[in-house]
Amino acid sequence: MSQLVLFAIDICAVTLLVFGLYFPRHRRRDLVVAFLGVNVGVLAVASALSASNVGAGLGLGLALFGVLSIIRLRSTELDQHEVAYYFSALALGILGALSTTSVWLSAGLMGLIIVVIYLGDHPRLLRHYRHQIVVLDSAFTDQVALVAHLEGLLDARVHVATAQRVDLVNDTTVVDVRYSTAVRRVTTGVPGTPTPVGAHR
Predict the structure, then answer these.
(1) Nearest partner of 68 among 48, 95, 93, 99, judged by Cα
(2) Most CB atoms closer than 10 Å: which of 5, 84, 136, 177?
(3) CA-to-CA distance for 187 and 7, rounded, in angstroms?
(4) Predicted structure pTM score
(5) Do 10 and 59 meet the contact criterion of CB atoms below 8 Å apart?
């Protein structure tokens, strides 16, 4: 009976994770079926293995799902927050399948996963910080000039700017930039000289 209760709690938890958190925030439909599928798949297989008489069956099954999940993540491009949702769905399925001394312990751990994802992926958390790959139509070999150009272009405070490729022939620069829009920038009377407005980094 307790196992059926855990199954029901897992289904409610993954439904909340997918339809209450992920889809309203990110609107990627193809990952909805991926999250639901991996949760129910792990729940079914881990439950069958835990009910068998083979002591190592459960550990082997979970290790197999770990390998399959890595292959799945390498077969398509996923953002880091989508990786977090993916493994949360995986963890919920494992918790729903394992028999513990207390149903409420498993339910509490499932609730902890949901709460952490809710807070960690909240739109208001660090909302001013951005990350982009920017292609510039000039070749920059000087880091200070590169940062100044990016801050003027993005109208933001650049925290990290890493040049990934500098093409001196075609006069282009590909740069990985991390910046904050909380601090805007304006120009002074001297053209091309940006001046920060607000707090420093």
Answers:
(1) 93
(2) 177
(3) 60
(4) 0.74
(5) no
Distances in whole angstroms, Cα of residue 181 to Cα of each of 52, 62, 150, 158, 196? 55, 43, 12, 9, 11
User: Chain centroid to CA 37: how far?
Assistant: 19
DSSP element (H, E) containing 163: strand 157-167
What single letter denotes the amino acid at residue 185? R
Q: How many C-beta atoms surround the C-beta of residue 136 within 10 A?
A: 18
CA angle 144, 147, 152 (to 5 degrees): 125
> What's the token pair of residue 150?
């990016």
What are 60-114's pLDDT values in tens digits?
556 656 656 665 656 567 788 888 998 899 889 888 887 666 888 999 999 999 9
Which residue is it, tokens 């069956």? 57
Q: Rounded to 10 degrees, what is the CA torsion of 173, 176, 182, 186? A: -10
